[in-house]
Amino acid sequence: MVVAVDGPVGSGKSSICKLVAKELGFVYLDSGAMYRASAYILQHLNLHIDNLSGALEKTVFTFSDNGGRLSVFIDGKGVDVTDHIRTPEISEITSSLIAKNTAVREILVAKQQEVARMNEAEGVSLIADGRDMGTKVFPDAQCKIYLDASPEVRAQRRLKDYQRQGLDTTFEQVLKNLITRDHDDTTRVESPLMVANGAVVVDTSNMTLEESIQAMIDVISSK
Ligand code: DC
Fold first, then answer.
1. CA–CA separation, 151 vs 167, rounded Å?
2. CA of residue 54 to ligand 1 center, whole Å
3. Ligand 1 and 10: CB distance under 6 A
4. How far is CA 120 from the centre of its chain?
């Protein structure tokens, strides 16, 4: 089974999906981390965006559970980019440049579909989160969920993440940045964020993490 989860920045997708995957014994695919890691590669190798897709074709993305935290590697276990890809600068490059690029999206979508095929061949279910999981990458997914929350709640959650990383920012800055990213995500020509056909909308604004996990499990179990 494939569970396709979409939603805006800070809707809690990654935290929730990672724990739901653990609870149900599913593999978790964090597609946003692939877009972020692509921004890291662009910056790190000082590439022009037109040359990024060539580099990405050869890149192997690997995820591993590191004591409850998802570690992200590029080139097998070669380079651990976990911390590098969560900075405000990488978020900005990802949303303004990487996520809009058709060639990059084609490569990442193919890699995501390949992950699903490999797991399906082994009889393992997959939960994948992002912006276009239910609309583009897995349009035939048995279960589609759209996770949402109010901009203020999402900004507060992001602020906590940044504070945990020791980054110096304010609620106002995070909220402003989030609204810009929502705008980028929903208005881009290529695979904009939207509620997929057949998706169940789960609003986590007033839910704790545990309640959100349970709400997701309830939807998945009903399919
Ligand atoms: O979910 P996230 O914040 O880690 O996503 C990072 C960026 O990548 C964000 O700008 C949206 C973009 N993205 C996308 O365009 N398509 C996806 N499937 C996942 C993320």
1. 20
2. 20
3. no
4. 20
* Residue of the CA atom closest to atom 11 of ligand 1: 95
Measured between alpha carbons, how far is 82 from 73 in angstroms, rounded to an integer?
Answer: 7
How much distance in Å is there from the Cα of 89 to the middle of ligand 1? 14
For 93-140, write each residue's pLDDT tens digit. 998 899 999 999 999 999 999 999 999 999 999 999 999 999 999 999
* For ligand 1, atom 15: residue with the closest CA: 99
Kindly state the DSSP code that residue 64 receives in the 8-state scheme.
Answer: E
What CA–CA distance (Å, rounded) separates 199 from 87?
Answer: 30
d(CA 123, CA 105): 27
Low-confidence residues of the chain, pLDDT below 50?
Answer: none
Beta pairing, strands 69-74 & 61-66: antiparallel
Q: What are phi and psi of 3, to 5 degrees?
A: -105, 115
Cα gap 25→22, rounded to integer Å: 5
